[in-house]
Amino acid sequence: FFFFKQKTAYEISACLVGSEMCIRDSSNGITCDTCSGGFFKQNSLCVSSCPSATFTSGSECRNCPQDCVQCSGAAACQTCKTGYTLYNGGCVLNLSLIHI
Length: 100
Hints:
By secondary structure, the protein is mainly beta. Helix content is 0%, strand content 52%. It contains no helices and 12 strands.
């Protein structure tokens, strides 16, 4: 069993997949507070792997730089969106595609 943390009491109940601790909030529903081993926190949920345009930082998924679809860190883009060119770990607009 897992715990739902509430302001005044704890309630024993099943938690979201991959979560060790969940918070029940009347306005936001259930969100993950702590993920189990092998899972990563992504936007208040626990996922088994970080999605595209994010990278693993400890036990969390963090966003890649703007216009980047694959990266290994906050300033380490590896693949840019279509229409962008990789430059110094980031993505810049490919000016050859702009028609004046």
